[in-house]
Amino acid sequence: MSERITIKVEDGVADVRLVREDKMNALDDAMFARLISAAEEINADTSIRCVVMSGLGRAFCAGLDMGNFAKMADGKRSENSVAGGGLAERTYGIANRAQQAVWGWRSLRVPVIAAVHGVALGGGFQVMLGADIRIVHPDTKLSILEVKWGLVPDMSSTAIMRRLVREDIIRELTYTGRMFSGVEGKEYGFVTHLSETPYEDAMALAREIASKSPSAVQTAKKLYNHIADKDDGEALLTESVLQDELMGSKNQIEAVMAGLQKRAGNFVD
Question: Among 38, 46, 165, 232, who pairs with 189 as Cys (CB 3.0-4.6 Å)?
Fold first, then answer.
């Protein structure tokens, strides 16, 4: 299998790069597999405190590889369908294989920052949405493109988009598949920050996050992931339970001491 994604870890930050640059980092079967395995590798490495995901070359990710559409035209199911049971079969907890390529990053133990440039179309747009924070070049071309190919978005983005953007906007963009810019994406709510240098700004933010108590940051991500679809009572109880776990822990005490002594924290992973 050709290399699709590289991971370089330095000072607690995992620099994750999509490196199929000759194909604008399009999603073939090998890229799907690597998106899943890369998230698993990072989740298992407790030295990693934050992730930056970016695409090498001219684009973040151009979406599904054209070879997959050629197979569909011949009446063949996508390589990312679940053999035998179809897409409705759950093979990764609450997700199927294609969904896990995005949901694996959304549910990752540590924060993920996407640094996006060029294009993020269809499946590539969905990969971008799997990040906690999205830093995007203003001129980036974005699209919920699936309708062009007679499909609906199916890589877990529907569960994510509804928490970010007004429903009528999601519907219009899904029904039409129209392109929109990073600037429009910011107005809609898909984009966290606009930047002329998204990778550099994402790395700076990741280093800042990595300097904080990993226990607090990872618990915060766990909290926000857990309460997304809960009622107010469940949300309030969850934050209390998780706060109880943090208070008095080694990293929490170190955070207090570092703040009082005006120094960087010396946290344990």
Answer: 165
Both structure tokens of 193: 């920050």
CB 230 within 8 A of CB 238: yes
pTM of structure = 0.93
pLDDT in tens, 138-174: 999 999 999 999 999 999 999 999 999 999 999 999 9
Spell out the domains of the chain, with CATH numbers in brackets.
Answer: 5-210 (3.90.226.10), 214-260 (1.10.12.10)
By CB atoms closer than 10 A (0-12, 13-18, 19+), residue 205 is buried
